[in-house]
Amino acid sequence: MKNYPNFKEYKPKKVPEGAPEGTRFFCDDNGNDWYHLMYELNGPEWKVGYLQDGCVVWATQNIVGTYSPAGLSVAVVDSVPTNQERTRDDIWYFEDGKVVDKANYK
After folding, report:
1. Does a structural domain hold residue 55?
2. What pTM value is reported for the model?
3. Is 70 within the bounds of a domain?
4. Which H, E and C letters describe the chain, residue by residue?
C-alpha cells in the first residue's frame, strides 16, 4: 500500500512538456507531483482519493487525466469493497491501509 498525503495546488518551476495549457498542478506533503505521479501509478491497483476523516471521494484503477487530488490524500490499494469504481450510493472509508464500506467502519 502506498499513501500520498494532503494534495494542494501549486505552480511548478517548470511546466512538464506536453502538459495542456491551463493544467492545474498538485503536490502532496512529501513533494510528489500529481501530474507525474498519475502516470507512474497507472496500473491495475486501485487508487482512492479520501478526505482527512477517511471518507473516500473517488476510487478508480485509471487516474490519468480524470481525477483531481485537490484537498485529498491518495492511497494505492489492492481492492475496494465492490471491486468497481465508487458510485454515489457507496459510502467507503480508508482505514488502516484498506478501503472498507460504512458497515465495517470503526
Report:
1. yes
2. 0.88
3. yes
4. CEEECCCEEECCCCCCCCCCCCCCEEECCCCCEHHHHHHHCCCCCEEEEECCCCEEEEEECCCCCCCCCCCCEEEEECCCCCCCCCCCCCCEEEECCEEEEHHHCC
Q: Sorting pLDDT into bands at 50, 70 and 90, what band is 76?
A: very high
Centre a 10 Å sphere on the Cβ of residue 77 and count the other Cβ atoms it contains: 17
- Tens digit of pLDDT for each residue in 42-57? 889 999 999 999 999 9
- What range does the domain containing 54 cover? 2-12+24-104
Query: How many domains are contained in the chain?
Result: 1
In a domain, 60, yes or no: yes
- Dihedrals φ, ψ of 101, to 5°? -80, 165
